[in-house]
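User: quick one, fold this
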Amino acid sequence: MSGIVTRFAPAPTGFLHLGHVRNALCVWTYARTHNGRVLLRIEDHDRQRSRQDFETAILEDLDWLGFVPDERVPRQSERGDAYTRVLGDFLRRGLVYGCTCTRADVGGAPYANTCRDRGIPIGLDVNLRIRIEPGVETFTDLLCGPQSQSPAEQCGDLMIRDRLGNWTYQWAATIDDFLQGVTHVIRGMDLIDSTGRQMRLARMAGRERPATFMHHPLIMKSATQKLSKSDGDTGIRDLRARGLTPSDVLGMAAL
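Assistant:
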């Protein structure tokens, strides 16, 4: 083995669609080409939207398509102790604060760090945020080339746990990639803007060497819209019901 470790990390909030298959193709092709390993991780940090029937269907479709992981790691709903341990270190360093701002309060703009200095007690009924100071993160994407991002300007202080007790995607994915030894993160272009903030967060958590990133093109249903689980776009189960073979589906998803 080369030491390369990547992961396929679906969220069980809907059925597998062609966009997921493209990502799986990129993940497994890169790993096999470089004699690396693929971890399968179920990202069910959103407990309100995650469903067991979706997870079961995702695993069945992956098996039907021939995507066999080298290891299945614990799903995120089983990782609370690990996230809490890392959070404890951040708390001791004074990097976490309570926040009562709602999604409507923030809107689509970067968070303005409204609650940073309000002294809101940290508890289970408030959001938790990490202080993100100014600074630039640079990386060379394997497909997109050199990138430069400023997390403090892009997103402000990061929310890591919401008032319902759900760990956020940014926190859970970053901590998992670090602690599970993921060396290469391969995902769609829609997530490239998350990279700088995840690199910053990982370094704050103690990761000395950042992961390598590759962001591949999405499968689009129009010039401006990507495929969506919530819209039921090109679901693999629907394609199977129409009589398509795994080779047919893989061909449709290929770059």
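User: anything notable?
Assistant: The first strand starts at residue 5 and ends at 8.
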